[in-house]
Design brief:
alpha/beta; Rossmann fold; 2 domains; 6-stranded mixed sheet; 4-stranded antiparallel sheet; 10 strands; globular; binds adenosine-5'-triphosphate; binds magnesium ion
């Protein structure tokens, strides 16, 4: 469903992403790994349209999205989480989801009408998403008062609120203890069960190796390997560039 073809992005003299190609099939969980600064977040930003590709093509379900603005990419079914938690800490848990839902609705209909017309419906929908995300009992709490693991869950809840087909996760396990990682693993598998397609950027190999179907490895913006978790763990180039210390 996601096809990345020969994309590149330079920042000044740095080739952050360098002639990168890979595909993610519908319903698949693909891991994108590599050392710090190897271009993983940049790849996610290029898919979401945070900035345009310098060259190459990105398509989703055969539609070339390379030059679409971010909101049109969201409308076409792409959603993401961020490497650093980005919540509205002074808003409640449900309001954080509500804000995300507004971004995805038709701007021309006007958010006031949307809100007053459908507030009950929206609250029901938000409740459903929060229960699914393990935050059903945190509905009215301030986002800033959630534990670290719960804040990560809220980010994930917000990302699925727009009913995406493809979800891009940028280091969702960063800073988690192993119980939280195990919970996250199950949540990612639940997304797969719902039929979502997942691209997972992650350094926590305990998660990557136990949840993905396939792995793409970057080094200096280039793909150096692609294959099954087992395959990648035994790959000499990957061991040298990245997994060596582990
Ligand atoms: N907006 C930007 N402006 C300038 N340089 C950038 C920008 N974003 C990324 N870079 C540079 O591009 C390279 C790739 O960065 P990127 O953030 O994609 O790496 P990463 O693989 O996500 O690393 P990490 O594992 O540390 O998150 C780095 O050299 C980084 O400094
Ligand atoms: Mg990154």
């Amino acid at each position: 469903m996601l096809k990345i073809k020969n994309i590149g992005k330079n920042f000044g003299g740095v080739k952050a992403v360098d002639d990168l190609s890979f595909n993610v099939d519908k319903g698949e969980i693909v891991g994108l790994i590599g050392p710090n600064g190897s271009g993983k977040s940049t790849t996610i930003n290029l898919i979401c349209g945070v900035f345009p590709v310098d060259f190459g093509n990105i398509s989703v379900n055969e539609q070339n999205i390379s030059s679409l603005p971010t909101h049109e990419r969201v409308a076409s079914g792409i959603s993401r989480t961020f490497q650093n938690i980005r919540l509205f800490k002074d808003l409640s848990v449900w309001q954080n989801i509500w804000v995300a839902l507004q971004q995805d609705s038709d701007q021309s209909s006007g958010w006031m009408r949307e809100w007053f017309g459908n507030s009950k419906l929206q609250k029901e929908k938000i409740k459903e998403i929060l229960v699914f995300s393990g935050l059903g009992d945190r509905f009215d709490d301030l986002a800033g008062n959630l534990s670290f693991g719960e804040q990560r869950r809220l980010e994930l809840a917000r990302a699925i609120a727009s009913k995406p087909k493809l979800i891009l996760l940028d280091e969702p396990a960063a800073g988690m203890n192993s119980d939280e990682v195990a919970d996250l693993r199950q949540r990612i598998l639940d997304l797969k069960k719902l039929g979502l397609t997942v691209l997972l950027v992650e350094h926590v190999m305990e998660l990557v190796m136990n949840v993905v179907d396939r792995i793409v490895v970057l080094n200096f913006g280039k793909k150096i390997a692609e294959g099954s978790p087992e395959n990648i763990q035994n790959n000499k180039d990957v061991q040298k560039a990245y997994l060596g210390g582990a």
